[in-house]
């Protein structure tokens, strides 16, 4: 899989900004398509390690998505919560990241989907470790949930990462 260069990511960001300028909706009233474009922009900002801008945009998206009565694709919402938590973690805002993880996990349960559930449980464990360094049992539970999901999906890379985290906690 080809990883985009910083130049390609910057070019893509400019194209996304142009697409948003062409939108017929106002800043106070975004369409679902606008929010999809904004989500792509927030993901790209994260790829460019512009974590604050990315997180601010996710917050804007989440505020505006509430105004749309019917969201056809709840997987997009899960993706937004996952990436918003990722940006918050990069900014060491573990409480906000934990909130996003919990909301993402809730939507997964409501929709009966495993989409990003392993990643959300992993990130939740990471948040919990940083919020309360005394409690290692609770993060361990979420690492184990993540591990089970990654094993079921045969995602070897993540199985290895989570197994190392679990072993580190157990032997800590």
Question: Which features characterize this protein?
Answer:
mainly alpha; 172 residues; 8 helices; single chain
Verbal overview:
- With 172 residues, the protein is mainly alpha-helical.
- It has eight helices and no strands.
- The model has no long low-confidence stretch (mean pLDDT 89).
List the helices and strands and how they pair.
Layout: H1 6-21, H2 32-47, H3 51-65, H4 74-90, H5 94-111, H6 117-131, H7 137-152, H8 156-170
Helix pairs in contact: 1-2, 2-3, 2-4, 3-4, 4-5, 4-6, 5-6, 6-7, 7-8
The biggest sheet, with number of strands, parallel, antiparallel or mixed sense and barrel status, is: none
H/E element sequence: HHHHHHHH
Low-confidence segments, given as residue ranges, are none
Number of strands: 0
Radius of gyration: 17 Å
Q: Please tell me the overall pLDDT.
A: 89
Provide a compact summary of the structure:
With 172 residues, the protein is mainly α. It has helices at residues 6-21, 32-47, 51-65, 74-90, 94-111, 117-131, 137-152, 156-170.
């Amino acid at each position: 899989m080809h990883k985009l260069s910083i130049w390609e990511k910057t070019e893509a960001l400019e194209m996304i900004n142009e697409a948003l300028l062409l939108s017929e909706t106002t800043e106070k009233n975004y369409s679902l398509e606008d929010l999809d474009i904004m989500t792509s922009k927030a993901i790209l900002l994260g790829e460019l390690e512009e974590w604050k801008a990315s997180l601010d945009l996710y917050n804007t998206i989440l505020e505006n998505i509430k105004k749309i009565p019917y969201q056809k694709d709840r997987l997009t919402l899960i993706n937004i919560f996952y990436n918003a938590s990722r940006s918050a973690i990069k900014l060491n805002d573990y409480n906000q990241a934990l909130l996003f993880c919990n909301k993402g996990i809730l939507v997964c349960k409501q929709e009966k989907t495993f989409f990003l559930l392993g990643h959300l449980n992993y990130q939740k464990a990471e948040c919990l470790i940083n919020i309360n360094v005394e409690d290692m049992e609770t993060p361990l539970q979420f690492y184990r949930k993540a591990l089970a999901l990654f094993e079921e999906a045969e995602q070897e890379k993540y199985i290895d990462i989570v197994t190392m985290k679990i072993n580190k906690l157990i032997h800590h």
